[in-house]
Predict the 3D structure of the following.
Amino acid sequence: MTKRTSFAAMNCSLARALDVVGEWWTLLVVREVYFGRRSFTEMRDTLGIARNILSDRLASLVAGGVLERRTGGSDLRRNEYHLTAKGRDLIPVLVVLMRWGDRWEDDGTGPPIVLTDRDTGAELEPAVVDAATGREIDAGTIGVRPGPGFRPEAWPAPAAGPR
Amino acid sequence: MTKRTSFAAMNCSLARALDVVGEWWTLLVVREVYFGRRSFTEMRDTLGIARNILSDRLASLVAGGVLERRTGGSDLRRNEYHLTAKGRDLIPVLVVLMRWGDRWEDDGTGPPIVLTDRDTGAELEPAVVDAATGREIDAGTIGVRPGPGFRPEAWPAPAAGPR
């Protein structure tokens, strides 16, 4: 699969994030590890992914600091992949994207998986809000301004702005 | 770029979502349109993306119902892309992924872009919470159970479960 110019150089945290996780298989591999399927073989069987692609994805997730590999000593088959703190911090992203899939890519049978609160068992309804005010963040409420890491030369003339 | 088996058939809303948006360029194209860069030429210039790839991405986003194309009558150069409701509903996903990039892919200069509340100008700190309780949703708080659309045959033997 051709990889284009690295997004890492772009002056945008979304682009940088996509440079690490922006590929079809990546988030599904993270899902698998989160669900406790930690070995190459288990992931290959569940995802139906080609051996070389899975191998490639696992290597880039380890290189990107999302997964860490714990070796099984002399038994290579016992290698296990675990989420790092950086990887665990992707789970809320998965959750929000999964809910988008529930809403917009329903095959007519409803959500395959329901998220629950691990302590109470209550169904969770994920929402993206501002931590300070609790106000929902959506396309209609966001403005943007340059942050400390903004490099004007990396951006073209201002667009109309979010709308 | 080789496209593998469609994720749409997988019994998982995350996989189905990735089937629509799970590619390097897709979310950046959504970002551009959200920022008001609506023409092919503007997007190509800002993203530095090859003409054929951008063309391909725009076509699949239109086919996937994320973008709609409004034609400029007889002047093809005036074609504009707009977010549909489904596309606008991706903005919270972008926001959460961007914040992950702010945290984990900082080049040392801080966030390039700061999100603000469009009404008050106050800086936004996006969080993923349960709508009912306001409790933060993260890797440590989630449980899962089969939903109405669950098809046991599409899933392998239960894994250890989220942890």
About this structure: The mean pLDDT of chain A is 87.
